[in-house]
Design brief:
alpha+beta; 8-stranded antiparallel β-sheet; 6 helices; globular; binds zinc ion
Length: 254
């Protein structure tokens, strides 16, 4: 439970650390229609959802206690959705969560070693290689990431280097909406409306993250995670990303 109206206390208890539940948790209702899904909205509808998230993050950013925004969506009960009505969520947190920090640290290490953005490098290499590309649009690229964690894991990256989603223009939100709608409809077709998790990865609020590049990650929930994942952080994925990308690429929607 987090709330905005709390003092940000950081306490030690012996060797343990505690931080007060300061934060914001907001829900964006995606459509007035109860049975609607994000994939079923038209480009304008998805743009409005993205723009609402962007506007809320812009507003909450003025609160200096917040260090990280987490913009995410659970679709389907198997992906953890507690509300049936289609919605997206925004968390503003006083800490950078470990999973996000790990990705940020990886991007920083790449930048320090090569003086290039890791994600710009991924875009260049995957475009040239082509085997894991799902969809190309002028401003966005959708791909199945190398060593995907689950069958049909999909990333969407803006081609232009940009650190934070919440600084995207209306035009960029529109382009993302086009890509996202197309990708979600392909996943719906390929996996028969799977439950999925979606997260928009954006840089921590602190200034020094120019090496980071915002992007969207979508994980269809078609495999169960068990003790091995818990014990090791390894994910068992029976579907090669090259096969998933090929399958999604050749689907015709209509
Ligand atoms: Zn970049
Ligand atoms: Zn990421």
């Amino acid at each position: 439970m987090i709330r905005v109206e709390t003092v940000l206390d950081r306490l030690g208890e012996g060797l343990f650390d505690k931080v007060a539940g300061v934060g914001a948790h907001e829900v964006v209702v995606e459509s007035p229609r109860h049975e609607e899904t994000l994939a079923g909205l038209d480009d304008d509808g998805i743009t409005r959802v993205l723009w609402a998230l962007r506007e809320r993050a812009q507003d909450l950013r003025r609160d200096v206690r917040f260090r990280q925004f987490v913009l995410f969506k659970n679709h389907g009960a198997a992906a953890g959705a507690a509300l049936a009505h289609s919605h997206t969520q925004l968390l503003a947190l006083p800490v950078v969560p470990r999973e996000i920090q790990a990705e940020v640290d990886g991007a920083r290490a790449h930048y320090l070693a090569k003086e290039r953005c890791l994600f710009c490098d991924i875009i260049r290499q995957e475009e040239e290689d082509g085997r894991r590309v799902i969809l190309r649009m002028p401003d966005m690229l959708a791909l199945a990431p190398f060593a995907s964690r689950s069958p049909f894991e999909t990333w969407i990256l803006p081609r232009r280097h940009a650190v934070r989603f919440e600084d995207a223009s209306l035009e960029e939100c529109r382009r993302l909406a086009q890509m996202l709608g197309d990708v979600l409809r392909r996943l719906d077709r390929a996996l028969e409306q799977p439950p999925y998790s979606l997260v928009i990865h954006t840089a921590p609020v602190a200034d020094d993250h120019d090496f980071y590049h915002w992007h969207v990650e979508i994980l269809p929930r078609v495999t169960r995670t068990g003790s091995l994942e818990w014990a090791t952080g390894f994910h068992m994925n029976p579907t090669r990303p090259e096969d998933a990308a090929h399958f999604l690429r050749q689907l015709t929607l209509g």
